[in-house]
Every structure is written in structure tokens, then in C-alpha cells.
Design goal:
By secondary structure, the chain is mainly alpha-helical. The protein has one domain (9-87): DNA polymerase, domain 1. The chain contains five helices and no strands. It has helices at 9-18, 24-37, 43-53, 57-64, 77-87. Helix 3 packs across helix 5. The longest helix is centred in the middle third of the chain and has 14 residues, at 24-37. The protein is globular. The two termini are 23 Å apart.
């Protein structure tokens, strides 16, 4: 992922709100992501996460569970990196 500035607290708060989903399963992945990475998130992470949040809940869940692979513009290195961060198992 390219070097980009860390997110300021106000933007991070808006990003968390934007990431709220209709499926509990997606929310669990996203909450774990923020619990683990929120202090080190950059603008590049946020941009990739925004692209994932444009998906429907079911399409996002398919990516998170590995039922589908990212294609087209979602196959970019930044989006794939954030997707892998979202899918990282709990410690």
C-alpha cells in the first residue's frame, strides 16, 4: 500500500459510520478490522474500504468469506490488501 497520511479522528469517525452494514456478519468483520487497525489506518486504506462499502451486503459477505474473489476495480492492490486485513483471523 502506498504511503499516505494517517486518518484524523474526525474522518475516522465518519468512516466508521459509513461502514455500518445491514448484515451482522459484515459488521463483525468490520468491527474486528477497526479494533485491530484503527490507529494505523491511512487514507489509502480508507479509500479502499470505501470502495468495498459500495458493494451490497451479500456481495461484501461473499468476498469476506472467500466465496468470491475480487474482480475488476476491486482487484486493485489497495482493495485486496484491505480485504485481507478484514479477513484476518482473530488473535
Amino acid at each position: 500500500m502506498t504511503d499516505s497520511p494517517l486518518l484524523d479522528p474526525r474522518y475516522l469517525s465518519k468512516l466508521k459510520w459509513r461502514c455500518r452494514r445491514g448484515l451482522l456478519e459484515n459488521d463483525l468483520f468490520i468491527q474486528r478490522f477497526f479494533d485491530r487497525y484503527e490507529v494505523s489506518l491511512t487514507q489509502a486504506h480508507a479509500d479502499a474500504l470505501e470502495r468495498l462499502m459500495d458493494l451490497s451486503d451479500n456481495d461484501l459477505l461473499d468476498l469476506l468469506l472467500g466465496r468470491k474473489a475480487p474482480t475488476d476495480d476491486l482487484a486493485s492492490p489497495d482493495v485486496v490488501a484491505v480485504l485481507n486485513m478484514l479477513k484476518a483471523p482473530a488473535c
